[in-house]
Amino acid sequence: MMYPERTEMPSLHLRLLCLNPDLGLRCTVQVFDVVREMFIEVGSLTLEDKTSSERLEEFAIRAKSEWRKLLRLFNQVRTLHVSGDEFIEGLCRSLQPHDGESAIELLPMLRVLSCPEGSHVGESCRSFLAIRQNADFPVTISHY
Question: If you ran DSSP here, which 8-state letter would residue 2 be given?
Fold first, then answer.
């Protein structure tokens, strides 16, 4: 769902609704890669995952490279809204630099990581925030 009319910046809300989250994410990445030009101006991205908690950690580990492929398409995102404690942690692991990458390889314009009130910000998120802070591209946590 895209919401360009709600704010001055185009926003995108992505919700994966499928029985097989691995396949759903892989297909989403393939489709988005083909239409990537549509997402150049997206400044606010909402990612919501309803995967059951018992499968989410396993999914987050297996899907790390797919999330990285998807997030590379959104270079102008300044605010990332994420729901679900386990999902937030898995996504933060995906955002951390790999194999000599720059700290801002993914989401270089990101300034705010927004999550629901009461969400637990774990070690992966704290590590991601510290890496960005040390690179002089700080990201703050916001709650909604």
Answer: B
